[in-house]
Amino acid sequence: MVIKNLTLHNFRNYEDETFCFSEGLNVLTGHNAQGKTNCAEAVFYLCTGTSLRIRHDSQLIRRGASGARIAARAATRFGDVTLEAVIFEKKRELYVNGNRVTRAADFVGNMNCVFFSPGELRLIQDGPDERRRFLNLSISQTSREYCTALARYQRILDQRNNLLKDSNVSLVLETLPVWDEQLAVYAARIIRHRRQYLARLAPLARDAHAFLTDGAETLTLEMDGTYPEQEEEIVQKLLRQFAGAHERDLRLGFTTVGPHRDDIKISIDGADARAFCSQGQARTAALSLKLAETEIFRELAGEVPVLILDDVMSELDLPRRKKLLERIRDIQCILTCTHAARVLYGAECRKIRIREGKIVS
Ligand SMILES: Nc1ncnc2c1ncn2[C@@H]1O[C@H](COP(=O)(O)OP(=O)(O)O)[C@@H](O)[C@H]1O
Ligand SMILES: [Mg+2]
């Protein structure tokens, strides 16, 4: 898949700009706070229907404007696709090939990207939230079934959590099993997808990490938490777990077990990366996960996503930087940096210079 162009209208600090991307390496340069990440964020939004930097869509609207519009055209193996998101203060409209779609699942996955920024270190070093978010986003982009299961699970979970805050304890205890039944069905589907995904991701991430470190380090990924093989058995196990947690859930006022609490265990050379690895190792491990994610798209969707590398070159040492450039030679990449010459070593690329939300060359 290749993004051909991207139009931003009243999006962040852009008034009206159109980017034309090449098939290979595209480098966005400019000083700090000029709009490089904003451009990358717009691509991410069209691919995933969300942004990692915001709490609310309205933050994406240019200050003083009433709405923002992001549109892009991409060449996919099914032909060209156009995507458009129009964002207002309190609602948004999504369009695929000019047709309005109302469900996020119909929008997500038409265009795919893998996003990497220094913040991705959190993937290795922070709590399980970040790793779940990574799984949810990457699996959603390749599986509608996952995307839908996740949305339904979340809705039921919210309702169950509301119920747990009700003061009528006997009524709550009576009603909980009904919610458990529904929750378990989607939970099991989520778990099955995550397990399948991780089984693919783990060897690819290990390879990418070995490549970037020239064989010096071994990266291992495992699902934290054990579930039976069959989806139906997972449902049964979850029902027992939910039932066993009723009292604790009531006391704490939220659902304490389920896939919204699961984690992935990441180790480097056998040591738990979260506790033991250096900044440099964490950075490389996070990058390896992202490179593995691009490979999975290639395998599952038969499509190579756009790789977005936001401000990461300066954070890698010279050998790893060169390895990375070597690794991404055959895919479309949008890379942002302040000084292109310092990170590219003459790699062939299209340079786009940005100043104050405008393309200047
Ligand atoms: N909703 C918005 N309206 C107007 N300007 C915004 C909005 N959101 C962010 N900005 C501006 O965008 C700039 C940051 O752009 P960014 O793409 O993060 O910079 P960089 O080039 O360093 O990656 C800041 O100057 C910020 O004030
Ligand atoms: Mg930036």
Number of strands: 15
Low-confidence stretches: none
> How are strands sequenced across the largest beta sheet?
2-1-4-5-6-7
- Identify the bound ligands: adenosine-5'-diphosphate, magnesium ion
Measured by DSSP, the beta-strand proportion falls in: 15-25%
Mean pLDDT: 93
Whole-number count of domains: 2
Q: Which oligomeric form is depicted? A: single chain
Give the distance, in angstroms, between the N- and C-terminal Cα atoms: 25 Å
CATH superfamily of the largest domain: RecF/RecN/SMC, N-terminal domain
Kindly provide the name of the CATH class of the largest domain: Mainly Alpha
Largest sheet: 6 strands, antiparallel
Order of SSEs: EEEHEEEEHEHHHHEHHEEHHEHEHEE
Brief sketch in words of this structure:
The chain has twelve helices and 15 strands. 40% of the residues are buried. Strands 2-1-4-5-6-7 form a six-stranded antiparallel β-sheet. A six-stranded mixed β-sheet has the order 8-12-13-3-14-15, with helices on both faces. The protein has a three-stranded antiparallel β-sheet with strand order 9-10-11.
